Amino acid sequence: MKKGILFSLVFILFANCLSYSQWNLMNLGGGSSGPIVCTKPGTFFVATSLGIYRSTNSTLTWQNVNDTVISSFWRSYPTWIAGRGDTVLYGSYGHVIGMARIYITTNNGANWRLVSTGSRVSSFVFKDECMYYSCTKLSNSGLYRSSDLGQTWIYLGRGNGGGSLASYGNYLYSSSVSSGTFRSSDKGVTWDSISPKGFTGIKLLGNLL
User: Could you tell me which residues are beta bridge partners of residue 120?
Assistant: First the structure.
């Protein structure tokens, strides 16, 4: 009897896994695709080499939401995208040194504004009222913070240039292979190392460690 129950449980779990293992190809008109983010229930943004696409019906259909600001930068390639609510940050780069760009929308992709040039973003994260990005650039690589929807940015230092960021609980996390993993409870002003001895960095994704 116990063996029968165990077999039934295993079969149900296996069937349940199969029911969630189906994938459908999203036709976005060609080009290479980059990161995808869910900004609020039912709304997704994906970064591609043809620009930004948005879905407001849980990925059933997609709409290109490039405007003249993004479209003016010819042949850009996505590096990262992150969002919360109606605010989305998008990073891209070109084949010419210094041609990296950061854009922001605060109205769910209706319009975009150029935030920074020359910064090749490796990670964005939102925490409380602030947003952060990590980047490499010709000068002042590292971590930046904004508390006014990207109007101004404060340079927090070089510790995470090219690394990844995450937010969880009361802490902001920063990690890179070269420098290790750190956390901050004061908006990135000071950092404490949390890397075990002999251990370098880990990949952080938004709110996932």
Answer: 136
